[in-house]
Amino acid sequence: MQEHHDDLGKIITLENGKTLAEGKGESAYSASFIEVKHIPSPFPSIRNVVIKQPVGCSILTPWNFPSAMITRKLGAALAAGCTAIIKPSPETPFSALAIAELARRAGVPDGVINVVTTQKNVEAVGRELCQNKIVKKVSFTGSTPVAKLLYGLASSTLKKVSIEAGGNAPFIVFDDADVEKAVEGAIACKFRGSGQTCVCANRIYVQSSVYADFASKLSEKVAAFRVGNGLDEATTHGPLIHEKAIDKVKRHIDDAVSRGAQVLVGGQRVRGAGSFFSPTILSDVPLDAAINTEETFGPVAALIKFETEEEMIALANDTDVGLAGYFFSRDVGRVWRVAEALEVGMVGTNTGLISHATIPFGGVKESGLGREGSHGIEEYLNQKLIAFGGI
């Protein structure tokens, strides 16, 4: 994968629409999961021995990271000794096929890594990969509604399941934050991949005394973005994945504006061919707006004013999902209080970027089950106790 870094990055850009720089970044990121090494701790008994045995698995991945979401799972599965069947998203099959071909060239035996692509029979293939008794483990990344459906299918044979589902990440700026760094963090977190990431900020809460300053600085940065072809070096943001994504973004904006929000930047589709949408900032977004309860998955930053830390914690946790959360503060006591209080699986304090290969990646509540990345190999192993008698 490292030897074919440029080609893999270009494939990601061509099938997904993100910029070439982001495509190459994902290529390097996806390769990093294969490199991770895991050394298990010894069992502390002198008579009982626990061994770990691999399970055959199915891997179902989304379109927003068509390479990294495969290798995050596949690296751990292969290290555990598993064979795997990969079903990539119908929108982005080529990265999966490229990985399988490179694995073949690298000497991975036939039948260890298998790829099933599909356009018309997505539901039937997903059902088979979850219900077939040969498959002993299902690993899925995608939306919460689909996760619940697949979880139910996998329960028919009580398979091992790991799920990384949807998010509704709060991004919080307290009045003691470094506003410049908070703006940088918001841009990195909210607009990466044109907002089409499960850990990107969905609700941006800013304490009232720094609200105007933050909104002004963020608007200035976002207004300078350039939307276009991901292969153009001048492009900062590519298209959304399809028309349904455009429709959802537009619906969230229209709903917020109808309830009193103001459009500071963007707010409309880019004219011409392709599913391009202008990076958007909304101010004074009311709490009852749809964007606060639904994951937008698009380039829309919804700014909401708050007054107290206690109020903020209640707002941030008022959601059924809990994947990631972010906040900026220079108060050490507040950093610990808020980090522990947020009901999410991952917290970024004074940073908008948290994901890399060595961390335990995953959420709580309806954002999923299990962890990937660091210690992710455990998800692909069964523990077996062997008790030696008569010694």
From TrEMBL:
Residues 1-385 form the Aldehyde dehydrogenase domain. One of its GO terms (molecular function) is succinate-semialdehyde dehydrogenase (NAD+) activity. Pathway: Amino-acid degradation; 4-aminobutanoate degradation. Pfam families: Aldedh. Keywords: Oxidoreductase. Gene3D superfamilies: Aldehyde Dehydrogenase, Chain A, domain 1, Aldehyde Dehydrogenase, Chain A, domain 2. Coiled coil: none annotated. GO terms for biological process: gamma-aminobutyric acid catabolic process. GO terms for cellular component: cytoplasm. The active site is at E164. The keyword Oxidoreductase applies. Belongs to the aldehyde dehydrogenase family. This is Aldehyde dehydrogenase domain-containing protein.
